[in-house]
Design goal:
It is built from seven helices and 22 strands. The protein is α+β, with helices and mostly antiparallel strands and 342 residues long. The longest helix has 12 residues.
Length: 342
């Protein structure tokens, strides 16, 4: 795949503007923006890259060698306060031209902020939870039983989602949402961008665990199953989420498929595409048009292209999808996408 782009030098005294940093990366809860911020105090950082597939080693590239030297001398085998006290292991790294180019087909420009997407009803908040809170949430779900689907594992709370019907049985109540979710729900209510919704009592949680290369096929969450606001909290690893809005009714009915294996591309040209990068510990809100009229999906990639950076998926990504179950038919303003109004 042509990665890594850099390698540890054979000679230990070979200086470079690039640093190979171990015990650091998305798999240990440190996304590239956080790493870049921590190292930027030593000089201008031109980029942070995955060093390999593990998600625990990164390359930090400085503009000049002196900045890299200062960072190495200050942080190698020392706890880094800006990175939660993590002890880093650092060596110089040298550029290694790839043998073959990374092949990522069917790409679309990736936005880092929802304000750049031009999709009404999408809101992304970075660093919604802390690294420590992320660890606690992952430990909580890992202590509970998982249900295995074809290529990923899931847990359901409140109400179980039925993948065959893409709906919930409101007569089969599983009980209140788990206590480990309470801090997340409290924080949702404290953010004006997230709390300004019609639903004040979210009652359904689906936890998904995605291995590298596993995504989610294009779909709109069933209108009759859930109310208008959907929250998705990303943990452990990053991913790209893409969106499609179809412009003809025939394409809409053919496109929706929740866990059936389909390609990420589509021979039809009758849709608009958008994409956004979801870093760990961020929360995404879909409401209004984005929730009711746009298909969303996670491409089945092991490698994502985010502008000029190639990012490998981490060893796992866990998402918390939080919703409110609808008790009556949907009366939304998008009848062409609505199962209640067809």
């Amino acid at each position: 795949m042509g990665l890594p782009r850099f390698a540890k030098p054979k000679a230990t005294n070979e200086s470079s503007s690039n640093l190979y940093v171990a015990n650091c990366g998305p798999a240990v809860g440190l996304d590239f923006d956080i790493v870049k911020s921590a190292f930027s105090k030593f000089g201008v950082v031109s980029g942070v890259y995955s060093a390999d597939e593990s998600g625990t080693r990164v390359i930090v590239s400085f503009v000049d060698n002196l900045a890299a030297k200062a960072a190495l001398e200050a942080l190698d085998r020392c706890p880094c306060r800006e990175l939660g006290g993590r002890v880093l292991h650092i060596k110089y790294s040298v550029f290694q031209p790839p043998v073959e180019k990374v092949q990522i087909n069917d790409t679309v420009p990736v936005c880092l902020e929802t304000s750049d997407m031009n999709v009404p009803g999408i809101c992304l908040i970075h660093d919604f939870i802390t690294i420590e809170e992320e660890k606690e949430l992952l430990a909580a779900v890992d202590s509970r039983p998982w249900t295995c689907l074809a290529k990923r594992r899931v847990q359901h709370y409140g109400y179980e989602f039925c993948y065959e019907t893409r709906n919930v049985n409101t007569n089969q109540y599983l009980g209140e949402l788990p206590s480990f979710l309470s801090p997340v729900l409290d924080r949702i209510s404290s953010f004006e961008e997230l709390s300004n919704t019609d639903e004040t009592s979210l009652d359904q949680l689906t936890v998904n665990e995605y291995p590298p290369g596993v995504g989610l096929s294009p779909h709109i969450d069933t209108h009759s199953a859930f109310e208008g606001s959907i929250f998705s909290l990303s943990l452990a690893g990053p991913c790209i989420m893409e969106f499609r809005k179809y412009t003809d009714v025939d394409s809409i009915s053919k496109s929706t498929s929740l866990d059936r294996e389909v390609g990420n591309s589509d021979s039809s040209s009758s849709f608009i595409r958008r994409a956004i990068y979801l870093p760990p510990r961020s929360i995404l809100l879909l409401s209004g048009e984005a929730r009711y009229a746009w298909h969303h999906y996670i491409p089945h990639h092991k490698v994502d292209l985010v502008n000029d950076s190639v990012i490998r998926r981490a060893s796992r990504r866990v998402s918390f999808t939080i919703r409110k179950v609808r008790k009556g038919p949907c009366q939304c303003e998008y009848p062409q996408y609505c199962d209640s109004q067809k």
